[in-house]
C-alpha cells in the first residue's frame, strides 16, 4: 500500500517556455521555424507524480524509444536507461545544458539519478539522434533536465508519500528572486524495503543554486548537488542456495560496487548474505557566468564532481562482517563548457567547446576475513582484494570545439550545418593504479576527429515539417572500458586492439499539428557503427571489453496526441527497432543470430488523461516485446510484458496563497510477472499515495 500528498499553485500545469495548462504530459513535438531539431517535453506533472522508485527516471518511461533495464526499482546499480537501444554511456544527459555523465568507474553507472529531486525539475527535454554539433559525441540523443528557476514571486513546494514495500518519499523545494539575487533549493528523503531480498534503499539528497545579476546583462551563479544513499546488495535467493528464503522473490545476487569480489570468495555469491550494503556519497559543484545580448548570449559552465563509496559484506552463514572497503569512485573529475550563440539576419550562429578530465580514484581495504576467500587473493594479480590500490584520477582527457549555422533560407526552408572537432586521450595505466605489473606492454590511446552534422527542414504547409538529418559521431571508451581492456590485453583474449566507435547516423522525420486539437510525428532512423564497444564476463578472467566489427541499428518511432471533448486527451507512441551485428569475437557461434542482446523489437505506450474541475486522472500502459539475452549458460529469452498504471490527483484546497492536493499512484495494476534485466524479477502490483502542498 502507498500514499502521497502534494501542494501546488496551478492544478493543471506549471508555467514554462510553453503553455501546458491542459496537458499532463507532453507527447507532441515542437518544430520552431528557426530550428531543425525536434524535441519531446515531459512536463512537471508527470515528473512529480508519486512513484514507488522516487526517481525522475520513471517520468521517461512513456516516451517513444525508451527502454528501462533495471534490476530493482530503487536501484543503485549501473546504467538503467536506453534510448533507441543505446545505454547511458552513449547518451548525453544534461542538467540545464551541463553534462551530468560521469566516469562510471567501479560499476557506479554513468548517471547518478538519485541526485535529482523531482520537485526541483521544471521539465525534461528529449532530443533524439544526430543532433547539432553542440551536442557532442552522443548516439542515441540528449536528455536535458530543466530545473526550476528563481522567480520574483516566492514558490515553496512540500510533499510526502507512503507506498508499497514500506516506501516513504518526502521532499521540499523553494525558489525566490529578490532584486538582483535569486536562489532555489530542494531537499528530499526516500526510503524503501525494496522488492528483492536485502535490496533496501535509504537516500537523502539536496540541491541548491544561487545567482547574481550584474550590470550590462551579465549574470553569475553557482550551485551544488548532493546525495547520500545506502543500498542493500541483492542476495542470491534461488532454491539451490542453502540460505534460500522462500518468502522472498527468487533472484540472482548483485554486487553494487566493483571490482567484484564474488569470484574470489570460497562460496562465491553464496558467501554474502543479508545486511550486505553499499553506501554512496555524491557531490557536484557548478559555477557559471553568462552575458545576455539583444541578439545572442555567451555562457561558461564549470562542473566538479566526486563520489565516495563504502561496501560492507556480511557472511550468509554467520552474519558477521567478512569484508569492508572504501573507494573514491569519482575523484575530482571536472568539465568546462563554453557556448556562444548569435542571431545575424537569417542565420543563427552557434560556437563553443568543452574540455573534460576524468578517471578513477583509489581503494582502501578496511577489513578482510581471509577465511572466506580463496587462495587467489595471495596471487600478485589479486592483491587489490587484500590491499586496495591507488587509482588513476587523470587517466583520460576529452576536448572539443564546434561551429554551426542554422540558416533560414526562406520561410519554409531551413538548413543546418555544423562541424565538431574532438580530441581524446587515454594514458597508459600505471601498475600502481591497480596494484600489480601488467602482462601487456604499456600503451595509450590518442585520437582526433572532425565530425560533420547536416540537416534540412521543409515546411510543406502550415504546422507541418519534414526534416532530413545526417551526422557522424565518435564515441570514446569510458575509463572502466579502457581499464579492463588494458588489464586483459596481455592475456591475448581476443581483444588485442581497442578502438573508439564511429557512427554514421541518418534520420527522416515528419511532424504535424492541427491547431490545439492534435499532433502527430513519425521518425525513421538508421545507424551504421564501426567498432561497437561491448563487454562480457569470463569465468577466471573477469570483465572483458572488446570491439564488435560492425553494428547496425534501425528503427521507426511514431507518436500521436489528441485533445478530446469533456476534458479528455488520448496519446500513444510506437517504436519498432532492430539491431544487427557482425564480427562479434565473443558470440563466435552466432547464438544471437546477428541480433544485439537485450533489444526489444517493439515498444508501445498509450494512455488517456482526464481533467475535470478539481480532479486529474491518467491511465496508461507500457508494452515491451521479448528480448534475446546471451549469458554464460547460453541463449535465453526474456518474456514480453505489459504494464497498466494509473495516477490521480484531487485538489482539496485552493486559495491565492495555498493549494493542497491529494495524490494516488498505482503501478503494474494487474500484477504482471516480468524482468527488465535477466535474473531480477520486478515487483507486482504497487500503490503509493500522499499529499502535495504549494504556497
UniProtKB/TrEMBL annotation:
Compartment annotation: Cell outer membrane
All residue ranges annotated as the TonB-dependent receptor-like beta-barrel domain in the record: 266-668
Assigned keywords, A-Z: Cell outer membrane, Membrane, Receptor, Signal, TonB box, Transmembrane, Transmembrane beta strand, Transport
Protein's name in the database: TonB-dependent receptor
Pfam families: Plug, TonB_dep_Rec_b-barrel
Cellular component terms per the entry's GO annotation: cell outer membrane
SUPFAM superfamilies: Porins (SSF56935)
Gene Ontology terms: biological process: siderophore transmembrane transport
Domain TonB-dependent receptor plug, chain residue ranges per copy: 34-142
InterPro entries assigned to the protein according to its UniProt record, in alphabetical order: Beta-barrel_TonB, Beta-barrel_TonB_sf, Plug_dom, Plug_dom_sf, TonB-dep_rcpt-like
Family that this chain belongs to: Belongs to the TonB-dependent receptor family.
Chain spans, region Disordered: 229-258
KW Phosphoprotein (keyword) present: no
GO MF terms, alphabetically ordered: siderophore uptake transmembrane transporter activity
Organism field: Desulfosarcina ovata subsp. ovata
Membrane-protein topology: Multi-pass membrane protein
CDD domains: ligand_gated_channel
Amino acid at each position: 500500500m502507498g500514499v502521497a500528498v502534494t501542494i501546488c499553485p496551478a492544478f493543471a500545469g506549471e508555467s514554462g517556455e510553453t503553455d501546458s495548462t491542459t496537458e499532463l504530459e507532453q507527447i507532441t513535438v515542437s518544430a520552431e521555424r528557426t530550428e531543425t531539431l525536434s524535441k519531446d517535453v515531459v512536463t512537471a506533472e508527470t515528473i512529480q507524480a508519486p512513484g514507488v522508485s522516487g526517481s525522475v527516471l520513471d517520468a521517461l518511461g512513456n516516451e517513444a524509444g525508451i527502454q528501462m533495464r533495471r534490476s530493482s526499482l530503487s536501484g543503485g546499480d549501473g546504467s538503467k536507461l536506453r534510448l533507441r537501444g543505446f545505454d547511458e554511456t552513449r547518451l548525453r544527459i544534461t542538467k540545464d545544458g551541463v553534462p551530468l555523465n560521469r566516469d562510471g568507474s567501479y560499476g557506479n553507472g554513468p548517471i547518478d539519478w538519485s541526485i535529482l529531486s523531482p520537485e526541483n525539475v521544471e521539465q525534461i527535454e528529449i532530443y533524439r539522434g544526430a543532433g547539432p554539433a553542440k551536442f557532442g559525441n552522443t548516439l542515441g540523443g540528449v536528455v536535458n533536465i530543466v530545473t526550476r528557476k528563481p522567480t520574483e514571486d516566492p514558490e515553496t513546494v512540500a510533499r510526502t508519500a507512503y507506498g508499497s514495500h514500506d516506501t516513504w518519499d518526502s521532499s521540499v523545494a523553494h525558489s525566490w528572486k529578490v532584486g538582483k539575487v535569486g536562489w532555489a533549493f530542494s531537499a528530499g528523503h526516500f526510503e524503501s524495503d525494496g522488492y528483492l531480498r536485502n535490496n533496501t534503499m535509504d537516500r537523502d539528497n539536496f540541491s541548491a543554486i544561487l545567482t547574481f545579476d550584474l550590470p550590462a546583462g551579465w549574470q553569475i551563479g553557482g550551485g551544488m548537488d548532493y546525495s547520500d544513499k545506502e543500498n542493500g546488495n541483492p542476495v542470491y535467493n534461488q532454491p539451490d542456495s542453502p540460505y534460500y528464503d522462500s518468502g522472498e522473490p527468487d533472484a540472482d545476487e548483485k554486487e553494487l560496487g566493483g571490482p567484484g569480489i564474488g569470484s574470489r570468495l570460497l562460496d562465491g555469491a553464496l558467501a554474502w548474505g543479508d545486511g550486505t550494503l553499499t553506501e554512496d556519497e555524491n557531490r557536484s559543484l557548478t559555477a557559471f557566468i553568462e552575458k545576455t545580448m539583444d541578439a545572442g548570449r555567451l555562457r561558461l559552465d564549470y562542473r566538479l564532481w566526486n563520489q565516495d563509496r563504502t561496501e560492507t559484506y556480511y557472511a550468509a552463514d554467520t552474519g558477521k562482517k567478512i569484508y569492508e572497503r572504501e573507494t573514491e569512485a569519482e575523484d575530482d573529475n571536472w568539465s568546462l563548457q563554453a557556448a556562444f550563440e548569435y542571431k545575424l539576419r537569417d542565420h543563427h550562429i552557434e560556437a563553443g567547446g568543452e574540455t573534460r578530465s576524468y578517471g578513477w580514484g583509489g581503494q582502501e581495504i578496511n577489513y578482510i576475513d581471509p577465511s572466506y576467500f580463496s587462495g587467489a587473493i595471495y596471487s600478485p594479480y589479486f592483491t587489490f582484494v587484500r590491499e586496495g590500490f591507488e587509482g588513476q584520477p587523470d587517466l583520460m582527457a576529452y576536448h572539443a570545439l564546434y561551429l554551426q549555422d542554422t540558416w533560414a533560407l526562406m520561410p519554409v526552408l531551413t538548413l543546418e550545418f555544423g562541424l565538431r572537432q574532438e580530441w581524446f586521450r587515454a594514458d597508459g595505466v600505471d601498475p600502481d593504479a591497480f596494484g600489480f605489473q601488467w602482462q601487456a606492454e604499456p600503451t595509450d590511446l590518442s585520437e582526433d576527429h572532425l565530425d560533420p552534422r547536416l540537416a534540412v527542414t521543409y515546411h510543406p504547409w502550415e504546422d507541418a515539417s519534414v526534416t532530413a538529418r545526417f551526422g557522424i559521431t565518435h564515441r570514446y571508451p569510458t575509463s572502466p572500458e579502457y581499464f579492463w581492456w588494458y588489464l586483459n590485453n596481455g592475456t591475448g583474449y581476443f581483444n588485442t586492439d581497442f578502438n573508439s566507435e564511429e557512427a554514421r547516423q541518418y534520420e527522416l522525420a515528419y511532424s504535424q499539428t492541427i491547431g490545439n486539437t492534435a499532433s502527430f510525428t513519425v521518425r525513421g532512423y538508421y545507424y551504421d557503427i564501426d567498432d561497437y564497444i561491448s563487454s562480457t564476463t569470463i569465468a577466471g578472467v573477469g570483465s572483458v571489453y572488446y570491439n564488435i566489427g560492425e553494428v547496425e541499428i534501425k528503427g521507426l518511432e511514431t507518436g500521436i496526441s489528441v485533445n478530446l471533448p469533456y476534458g479528455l486527451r488520448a496519446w500513444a507512441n510506437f517504436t519498432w527497432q532492430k539491431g544487427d551485428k557482425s564480427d562479434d569475437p565473443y558470440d563466435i557461434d552466432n547464438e544471437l543470430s546477428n541480433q544485439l542482446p537485450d533489444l526489444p523489437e517493439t515498444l508501445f505506450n498509450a494512455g488517456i488523461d482526464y481533467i475535470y474541475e478539481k480532479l486529474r486522472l491518467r491511465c496508461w500502459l507500457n508494452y515491451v516485446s521479448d528480448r534475446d539475452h546471451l549469458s554464460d549458460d547460453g541463449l535465453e529469452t526474456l518474456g514480453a510484458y505489459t504494464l497498466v498504471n494509473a495516477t490521480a490527483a484531487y485538489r482539496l484546497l485552493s486559495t491565492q496563497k495555498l493549494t493542497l492536493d491529494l495524490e494516488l499512484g498505482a503501478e503494474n495494476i494487474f500484477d504482471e510477472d516480468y524482468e527488465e534485466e535477466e535474473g531480477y524479477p520486478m515487483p507486482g502490483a504497487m500503490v503509493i499515495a500522499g499529499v502535495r502542498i504549494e504556497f
